[in-house]
């Protein structure tokens, strides 16, 4: 009679309660130490939805970061075009000085440089940030040596500018106490 109640086909084990056939078969074959509790579909679904939520949040944050980067790049583009316009004006002024001192044929080089800078600023102003990024990527792919050389030159110039600014600040800091002790 005990064998009738311990039915491993998913019947009733205690005479009235239905049992899980998988759990009963595992428990009856291997003992209590080897019971396997598999995750059911109900338990796996919250994991999938939380993983999807994390992916959605990461995608959302990535999109926000890209938007902010584009915004900063747009501001940088505006500053760069303004600075290029100022440099072009300086070259125009220098061309007038060169005309007066050395002659008009030497001043044309400065004017040509000013026109080139102005046209570059205008083309930069007319492009979108994404177009500029695409152009830069293509330039690096086509001419990596030029890109590395330009990056090195820009790094050198920036390092010199920063160093000169730090040196000027330290010189100013050293001179102020000396001037105050004399007075």
Mean pLDDT: 76
Order of helical and strand elements:
HHHHHH
Quick one: overall form? Answer: extended
Termini Cα gap: 115 Å
Per DSSP, the total helix count is 6
Helix content: over 70%
Structural class of the helix and strand makeup? mainly alpha
Features:
183 residues; mainly alpha; disordered N terminus
What does this structure look like?
- This protein is mainly α.
- It has helices spanning 2-5, 21-30, 41-101, 104-126, 129-142, 144-182.
- Helix 3 packs antiparallel against helix 4 (104-126) and helix 5 packs across helix 6.
- The termini are far apart.
- Mean pLDDT is 76; it is low at 1-13.
Write the layout of secondary structure elements.
Blueprint: H1 2-5, H2 21-30, H3 41-101, H4 104-126, H5 129-142, H6 144-182
Q: How would you summarize what this structure contains?
A:
By secondary structure, this protein is mostly helical.
């Amino acid at each position: 009679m005990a064998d009738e109640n311990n039915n491993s086909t998913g019947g009733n084990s205690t005479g009235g309660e239905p049992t899980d056939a998988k759990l009963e078969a595992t428990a009856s074959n291997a003992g209590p130490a080897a019971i396997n509790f598999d995750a059911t579909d109900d338990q796996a679904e919250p994991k999938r939805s939380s993983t999807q939520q994390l992916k959605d949040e990461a995608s959302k944050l990535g999109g926000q970061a890209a938007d902010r980067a584009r915004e900063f790049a747009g501001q940088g583009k505006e500053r760069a075009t303004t600075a290029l316009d100022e440099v072009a004006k300086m070259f125009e002024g220098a061309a007038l000085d060169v005309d007066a001192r050395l002659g008009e044929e030497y001043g044309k080089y400065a004017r040509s440089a000013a026109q080139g800078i102005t046209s570059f600023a205008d083309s930069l102003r007319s492009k979108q940030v994404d177009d500029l990024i695409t152009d830069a990527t293509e330039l690096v792919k086509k001419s990596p040596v030029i890109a590395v050389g330009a990056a090195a030159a820009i790094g050198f110039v920036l390092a010199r500018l920063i160093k000169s600014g730090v040196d000027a600040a330290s010189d100013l800091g050293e001179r102020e106490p000396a001037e105050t002790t004399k007075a």
